[in-house]
Amino acid sequence: MPDTPRHPATSLIPEIDQWNNGRGIDLEDWIQCEGSFPDAIGYSSIFWPRIVEHNGYVLLCPFGESALADFEKQSIGNRAAVEATMNHRHMELLFQNEVCNRSEERMHYLGETLAQIYRAKLAQQFPEKRFTVEYDRSDDRLTFFQINS
After folding, report:
1. What is the side-by-side strand order in the sheet with 141-146?
2. Global pTM?
3. In a shared domain, residues 114 and 82
4. Is residue 20 part of a domain?
5. What ranges in 10-103 are assigned the alpha helix state H?
6. How far apart are CA 83 and CA 119, in angstroms?
7. CA 30 to chain centre
8. Considering the domain boundaries, does residue 131 fall inside one?
9. Sign of dihedral through CA atoms 65, 67, 70, 71?
10. Which structural domain range is residue 19 located in?
11. pLDDT in tens, 17-39
12. What is residue 56's three-state secondary structure?
């Protein structure tokens, strides 16, 4: 194992320490051993999502036209509220088969990391627009919406 400090997320994956006769390996080596192209491609849709502009809204894809219409009616003209609702993700729902491996610490790490990624993605894709990207630790919810939309 290298003498450099371990990646902070390593502590969230106890299986890493079981490698190399109990001495552990670093996070990147573990991914090289255990990861797969299909998983990485699937995760890319979460870590660099498709986001489109639609009728002045900026929305995660896919989205439902009927859900958008319903939220528009409920919001009484509050476009930011519509976007915040349409663009939210709950960390616990991303990996529904991982209930036994779920922890607050893991969900918070993922939510805070995704918030940083979404800020970068939105700034790169829509440089003329301003956004609020929020990760709420109390309900493990990530969302974004345009400012002054």
Report:
1. 89-90, 141-146, 131-136
2. 0.87
3. yes
4. yes
5. 27-34, 37-47, 65-75, 79-86, 91-94
6. 15
7. 21
8. yes
9. negative
10. 10-42
11. 888 888 888 889 999 999 999 99
12. coil
Q: Report the chain's terminal Cα–Cα distance, integer Å.
A: 50
Which residue in the block uniquely carries the two structure tokens 């790490």? 109
Query: Which residue carries 């490698």 as its tokens?
Result: 19
Collapsing DSSP to helix, strand or coil, 134 comes out as strand
Say which residue the tokens 């002054």 belong to. Answer: 148
Whole-number Cα distances in Å, 110 to 41, 89, 141 = 17, 11, 11
Instruction: Give Cα 64 distance to the centre of its chain.
Output: 20
What's the pLDDT tens digit per position in 34-51? 999 999 999 999 999 999
Number of structural domains found in the chain: 2
List all residues 6 or more positions away from 147 whose beta carbon is below 8 Å from its beta carbon. 80, 130, 131, 132
Number of alpha carbons in the 13 Å side-chain half-sphere of residue 18: 5
Q: 3-state DSSP call for residue 137? A: coil
**Residues in the chain, overall count:** 149
Instruction: Report residue 126: phi and psi, to 5°.
Output: -130, 65
